[in-house]
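// run 5 | inverse folding | seed 20
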């Protein structure tokens, strides 16, 4: 049995959960039983996991991180953690406690990590089974304390819809520009980048509005689009046509 432990919220985003669901689906296809440990008040994650058809272990909110492994089911072979987000960066103590508890319990822990300044390289972190940094250029980061370091483009985590696509001809000049920063974009990068690019002119710009954008972000985004002539499109539709359309994203 493989257990996944991640979180999803408007201030965290949903990319952590999405890539865990992709990994779990792949492992399930190879005959592994996957389960998600979900906080009892994390309704957004619970609904997505339920829709994807995976079992869940409920964790009381009061026991998160420090005491949560007491709620894990028996028979776990490996734990995937994807908890390196803004809250953990601001206060790493709870994540350190969880990693140490997993280590003490003898679980093989795979840590799905961020990149460079946002990567988890705390001096008090225990040595783990594996770190995964699935980003182009991540091999230039500082090696973490682990038995296996899986890093770089070969480990990119992609949904089935994006696999096996034909090679895309790269335009000599980028005329169609796509701006997309996920479903929540709590830092409002979509509007910031659109505002900067909109001043340049000469390109067709399409910005994707995620389903968990704040109302303030939506209003700001639409105002910039109206002033620059850019398109704002809803992310509920499939993203693949947008990638085919774009010269650069």
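// decoded
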């Amino acid at each position: 049995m493989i257990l996944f432990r991640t979180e999803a919220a408007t201030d965290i985003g949903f990319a952590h959960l999405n890539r865990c669901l992709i990994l779990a689906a792949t492992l399930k296809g190879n005959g592994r039983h996957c389960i998600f440990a979900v906080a009892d008040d994390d309704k957004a994650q619970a609904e997505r996991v339920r829709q994807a058809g995976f079992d869940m272990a409920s964790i009381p909110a009061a026991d998160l991180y420090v005491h949560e492994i007491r709620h894990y089911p028996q028979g776990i072979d490996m734990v995937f953690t994807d908890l390196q987000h803004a809250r953990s960066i601001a206060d790493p103590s709870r994540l350190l406690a969880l990693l140490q508890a997993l280590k003490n319990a003898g679980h093989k822990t795979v840590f799905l990590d961020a990149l460079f300044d946002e990567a988890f390289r705390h001096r008090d972190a225990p040595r783990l089974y594996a770190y995964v940094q699935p980003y182009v250029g991540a091999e230039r980061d500082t090696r973490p304390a682990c038995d296996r370091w899986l890093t770089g483009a070969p480990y990119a985590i992609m949904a089935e819809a994006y696999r096996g696509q034909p090679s895309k001809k790269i335009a000599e000049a980028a005329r169609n520009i796509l701006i997309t920063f996920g479903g929540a974009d709590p830092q409002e990068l979509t509007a910031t980048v659109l505002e900067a690019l909109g001043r340049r002119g000469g390109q067709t710009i399409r910005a994707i509005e995620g389903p968990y954008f704040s109302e303030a972000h939506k209003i700001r985004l639409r105002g910039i689009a109206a002033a620059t002539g850019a398109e704002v499109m809803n992310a509920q539709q499939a993203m693949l046509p947008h990638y085919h359309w774009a010269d650069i994203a």
